[in-house]
Amino acid sequence: MALMAPSPTPSIYTYYNNKYKSKNKNKAQNHKIFTAPSIVLSQSQQPDKKPDHQIPRRDMILRSSELAVIGAIFSFSGKKPDYLGVQKNYPALALCPATNNCISTSENVSDPTHYAPPWNYNGGRNRKKPVTREVAMGELLQVIKSTKPDRYTPKIVEKKEDYVLVEYGSPILGFVDDVEFWFPPGKKSIVEYRSASRIGNSDFDVNRKRIKALRQELEKKGWASEETF
Questions:
Q1: Are 85 and 163 a contacting pair, CB within 8 Å?
Q2: pLDDT tens, 142-179?
Q3: Which of 120, 129, 149, 146 is nearest to 212 (CA)?
Q4: What is the DSSP string of the chain?
């Protein structure tokens, strides 16, 4: 009797290829034997089915709700810093930490990551006649209440004649940013500000975008930036 040559050892590719064909064959047989209910559609019968990488709108809403619950449970609001307000040693708002989620007019202009130029509430083209600090404060408060950059909700927690502290809460996880506005003493129509996130290292320019959005609304009332921003 002639000896048969041993068959070559199948490769991993051959193994999974045969397994895949067998699996598809079983699926084809099942389709021939069983009839699916009319309310169930196979993947080939759904011409309007979106690609797998697209998340349906309903799922996005549900996931956002879940994130909101998680944010409420674990509290991502952070602790309010105890150094906010006009500094005692040198009259100015606080400097920024080393993180990339803060901007302040108190920073040096050579620091583009944290520096932002102050505002002049009588320096805009739309200002026909100079206004007092009290009028400018009223305009600022109005813009703060009516503007929600990135859907953050503003909450005024402290107000003085020359100072305003606003907490901006994110719509989903409840992150809180502290934003300060200060009218320095003197004859100049200057407003200093500071916007900083309580936690994290980066804010994806949320603080800078917020300040820009507020400034653009204030420009309609006659405000202007002291420098290009």
A1: yes
A2: 999 999 988 999 999 999 999 999 999 998 889 999 99
A3: 149
A4: -PPPPPPPPPPHHHHHHHHHHHHHHHHHHHHHH----TT---GGG-TTPPPTTSPPHHHHHHHHHHHHHHHHHHT-S-PPPTT-SS-SSSSSPPPP-SSBSEEETTS-TT-TTTB---EETT-STT-SS---HHHHHHHHHHHHHH--GGGPEEEEEEE-SSEEEEEEE-SSS--EEEEEEE--SSSS-EEEEEEEESSSSB-TTHHHHHHHHHHHHHHTTT-EESS--
The residue assigned the tokens 């320019």 is: 205
What's the rounded Cα separation, in Å, for the pair 96 and 211? Answer: 15
Residues recorded for the chain: 229
Q: CB neighbours of 124 closer than 8 A, spacing ≥ 6?
A: 218, 219, 221, 222, 223, 224
pTM: 0.68
Q: Which residues pair with 178 in a beta bridge?
A: 167, 196
CB 168 within 8 A of CB 177: yes
Q: For residue 213, which of 148, 154, 157 has the smallest C-alpha distance? A: 148
Task: Note the pLDDT of residue 103.
Answer: 98
Q: Beta 102-104 vs 190-197: how paired, if at all?
A: antiparallel
